[in-house]
């Protein structure tokens, strides 16, 4: 429930804006041990360090908002929420970029060297955790644990949209949070097989499932930074008029294959304030398939193959519990 303060701006929105500003101020971009990374830490000594591994075609930049320390950063909605959740729980967070478009076994030593160098330089003698999405999740579950030195083992991992992980793999850590989207049946089968294997090996596993989300009028203003409720309402209206949204408010077609870009980029023609606002939103978003924040928000609403942050607090609390 949003409460309106003296300025007329919802307090919840102001709180989110404040947290975004604090995150941007704290983050830092650098290349360490040949690895591109963006990191931030809470004001006090962190409880741990969370390494963040992106999905195929994305980079370290997609976990953080643009700032003077990282002008090329471009936050995607779920990734940014996951990074903020880490800071909120008193954890430092560092996102890394794969050497190629996706993670491979060869990235293991590079990532391990970068994480050790960062922890050593900052004087952090704290546990290491990891969050991976898609191929980043497969990397966290297989290559990363083998590459880390005994001085920096993984204490817990959170994997989303797990890719191909052989059933014989040992768990990456003693505590594993797994998020899947049941709409993606092949991935769901792999996830269920991995969970059974890891539990038999003695790991404590938290299973989370992310269902599709309804596109109410405020969906985009709640999900994306810089989108007003009016702009959100108009975007939803365009999709609804074009037949992309059901009577119950759910997407009818997978954004990965539908022509939604043409819908939101071609307003209805009256050139009113709402339409101009929609054009501004589209102009700020390049609409490319992997780095579009608008596309990521739609993909998450469809609930088939996109990062999710709705249960981030529960996942982190599970990893941190004594």
Structure description:
This protein has 322 residues and is α/β, with parallel strands linked by helices. The protein contains 12 helices and 8 strands. It has helices spanning 11-26, 77-88, 107-122, 135-141, 143-147, 185-200, 219-223, 229-241, 260-264, 273-284, 293-302, 312-320, and strands spanning 28-32, 35-40, 49-53, 92-96, 128-133, 154-160, 175-180, 204-209. An 8-stranded mixed beta sheet has the order 1-2-4-3-5-6-7-8, with helices on both faces. α2 links the parallel β3 and β4 (92-96). It is globular and about 55 Å long. The two termini are 33 Å apart.
SSE topology:
Layout: H1 11-26, E1 28-32, E2 35-40, E3 49-53, H2 77-88, E4 92-96, H3 107-122, E5 128-133, H4 135-141, H5 143-147, E6 154-160, E7 175-180, H6 185-200, E8 204-209, H7 219-223, H8 229-241, H9 260-264, H10 273-284, H11 293-302, H12 312-320
Parallel strand pairs: 3-4, 3-5, 5-6, 6-7, 7-8
Antiparallel strand pairs: 1-2, 2-4
Helix pairs in contact: 8-10
SSE ordering: HEEEHEHEHHEEHEHHHHHH
Structural class given helices, strands, pairing?
alpha/beta
Major beta sheet summary: 8 strands, mixed
Unreliable residue runs = 1-13
Summary tags:
disordered N terminus
Quick gist of this model?
With 322 residues, the protein is an alpha/beta fold. Helices cover 39% and strands 14% of the residues.
């Amino acid at each position: 429930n949003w409460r309106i303060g003296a300025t007329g701006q919802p307090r919840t929105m102001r709180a989110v804006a404040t947290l975004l500003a604090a995150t941007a101020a704290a983050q830092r971009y650098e290349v360490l041990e040949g690895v591109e990374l963006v990191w931030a830490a809470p004001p006090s000594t962190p409880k741990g360090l969370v390494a963040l591994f992106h999905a195929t075609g994305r980079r370290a930049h997609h976990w953080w908002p643009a700032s003077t320390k990282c002008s090329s950063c471009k936050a995607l909605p779920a990734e940014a929420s996951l990074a903020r959740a880490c800071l909120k729980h008193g954890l430092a967070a560092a996102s890394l970029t794969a050497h190629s478009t996706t993670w491979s076994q060869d990235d293991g030593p590079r990532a391990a060297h970068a994480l050790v160098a960062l922890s050593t330089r900052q004087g952090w003698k704290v546990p290491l955790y990891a969050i991976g999405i898609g191929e980043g999740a497969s990397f966290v579950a297989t290559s990363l644990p083998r590459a880390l030195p005994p001085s920096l083992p993984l204490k817990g991992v959170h994997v989303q949209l797990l890719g191909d992980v052989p059933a014989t793999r040992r768990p990456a850590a003693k505590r594993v949070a797994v998020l899947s989207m049941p709409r993606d049946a092949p991935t769901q089968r792999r996830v269920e097989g991995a969970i059974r294997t890891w539990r038999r090996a003695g790991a404590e596993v938290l299973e989370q499932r992310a269902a599709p989300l309804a596109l109410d009028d405020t969906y985009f203003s709640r999900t994306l930074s810089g989108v007003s409720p009016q702009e959100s309402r108009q975007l939803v209206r365009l999709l609804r008029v074009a037949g992309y949204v059901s009577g119950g408010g759910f997407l009818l077609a997978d954004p990965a294959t539908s022509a939604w870009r043409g819908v939101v980029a071609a307003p209805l023609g009256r050139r009113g304030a709402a339409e101009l606002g929609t054009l501004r939103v589209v102009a700020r978003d390049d609409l490319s398939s992997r780095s579009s924040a608008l596309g990521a928000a739609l993909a998450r609403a469809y609930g088939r193959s996109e990062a999710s942050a709705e249960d981030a607090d529960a996942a982190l609390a599970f990893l941190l519990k004594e």
